[in-house]
Amino acid sequence: MALWAVSIGVALDGEIVVGVVYYAANDHLFWADDRGAFLGEERMHSWGFTDPAAATVACSFPLPRDLVHEPEVSLAQFAEVTNQFAQIRALGSSCIALCWVAAGWLDATISFEAHSWDVAASAFIVRQAGGSYRTYLHGEELPATRDYENPHYYASVPGASFEILERIMRHQSKRPLP
Length: 178
Description:
The protein has 5 helices and 11 strands. The protein has 178 residues and is α+β, with helices and mostly antiparallel strands. The strands form 2 sheets. The chain has a 6-stranded mixed sheet, sandwiched between helices. Strands 1-2-3-4-5 form a 5-stranded antiparallel sheet, with helices on one face. The chain has a single domain, classed as D-Maltodextrin-Binding Protein, domain 2, CATH 3.40.190. Helix 3 runs parallel beside helix 4.
């Protein structure tokens, strides 16, 4: 599976002002600036299902260390996601999953232990497309300022409120970072 991309986020005084993600395998150029978000030259608007029963979610969860430290909780949470959502995907690329939320190809994505180079550009693209991007640490949602530096994120299409994903974010973001 060719799920890798070149991701560049440009920050001015700590705030992302331009994001570019090039998904070479499919020749998709996702980008955003102050005018909005685009796929190539076409403007993107994040949209999708807000009912879990119809929605597709990408998650990098549970991680192998979750299965060592909290196997029962992690597997129960994953089972809950599997039972509530129409489709579950594990892409392995934060920047691609986030761009797919921006394009409306995924309805939500969660990830833990992401790095700024994974999310700076694509989180900006999600927001410029009208989607939601939130980060968590120690069980609490963090302010949006410089959120690309925060390790745990949850992104969704506009109007979505997937309670199970928020609950998992609050619980799993309490664990210590490696």
